[in-house]
Amino acid sequence: MSTRSNYIHQGVISESRNKKRLPVRHAFSRPLRFMPIYYVLFTIYCALNLLKFTSFQELSWMNIGLLYLLIRIVSTLVLGVRILVQRFQAKQYVLCLVVGSCVLASTFISGSWNILLLLLFLIAGREVDLRKIAICVLCTNVAVIFLTVICANNGIIKKTTFIAGNGMPERQAFGFTHPNLFGLAVVTACCAYAVLQYRKFGWKDLLIYGVAFYACYELAYSRTSAISILLIVFLSLFVTIDKHGRWDKLILVLGSLAFLGLSLFSIWLMVYFKPSISWMSNLNSMMTGRLDLMHHYFETYGVHMFGFDFSKMQENYRGYYDTFICDNAFAHVVLESGIVVAALLFLAYEYVLLRGLIVYGELTPELFGLIIFAFVAFSESGAFWVCVNFCLVALAEPFFSLYSKLPNNNK
């Protein structure tokens, strides 16, 4: 496989050789100087995004909420400046203006920064190295998980035990605000590790995934996270056995169909879910009420063109759901960010998978990660956050491919 597959924006690798240097002589205009800033911002953003889902947020002296707001503001300003000093073609400026306007409208209306920061990290990360991003995500998640578990077990932060009833065992959150959020952190770390170990699955990896599976299934009792880890193991083992990529096209076909099918199925369930239908009720129970919740938000608040601000809602659904909890990422984006932004995101995701199939016919690490998260998105709301699904940086390809045709790696 070409080493260029380590970079997501392959169509612009040689651009700096063919273009004159920009007259601006500061770090923002020089890729080699800016990228360390990019990785630092990304790492801090990942860490604080994860910490706000732990009991550390209850420690007033840490001010996690304020720090998280500050890193979002700083990231927006720094990445925004980086984008402004880059040189694009006219059609790229038009696309950037159209998509940016839609995302800004959604951000102001919904109050959610997730898609805005995703867009900024995409366009500003023209020369981003996926392996370095994966290392940032892996190290951040592992560090926060260990820190949180140790502090919770030693009484430094609150350790909560959840009793779900209905014959379900006690669920340990290990210092996180919910066991499923602990599971999401573990799954994110496993995905990052899987990308770093792409086509190199071994006994050591099986041991690591086994520990992760045990923590999610037996301790946190997060069944969806445990299933996601099994999926990672299966796909990692399969692509390692198929080291020469004979089945790459088939995997890309199935991955593209899976994303399309799961997105449409999720939205259909959000609209038409009925607990009186046995298979829907059983699926809802298996997913710990996720279908019922997303249908409730659809029925109560509807869907809007540019999203809805759920921080202003006042309710107590079923006695304990007083905040917006929609653990299906497809429905989450539609409800929170709106129809327009969701459509743009889903189309870009599907486009990148299909382009990998049609143009390259090769399964690269970033496409491998996108396929994994296509399944994770069915049960985890964070699957479209760039700090969780770091492979989303590949979605910038539709933008940068306007500059020139991507090279065919099969040549």
Question: What string gives the helices and strands in order?
Answer: HHHHHHEEHHHHHHHHHH
Main sheet makeup: 2 strands, antiparallel
The strand order across the widest sheet is 1-2
Helical fraction = 55-70%
- From the spread of the alpha carbons, the general shape counts as globular
Structural class by secondary-structure content: mainly alpha
Distance between the termini: 11 Å
Q: Count of DSSP E strands? A: 2
Report strand %.
under 5%
Contiguous runs where pLDDT drops below 50 for at least 5 residues: 1-27, 403-411
Determine the mean pLDDT: 87
Q: Give the C-alpha Rg.
A: 21 Å
DSSP helical segment count: 16
Could you explain how this protein is built, in words?
The protein is an all-alpha fold and 411 residues long. It has a domain of 238 residues. 61% of the residues lie in helices and 1% in strands. It contains 16 helices and 2 strands. A two-stranded antiparallel sheet has the order 1-2. A hairpin with an 8-residue loop joins β1 and β2. α7 packs antiparallel against α8, α7 packs parallel to α9 and α9 runs antiparallel to α15. The longest helix is centred in the middle third of the chain and has 25 residues. It is globular, with a radius of gyration of 21 Å. The relative contact order is 0.13. The N terminus and C terminus are likely disordered.
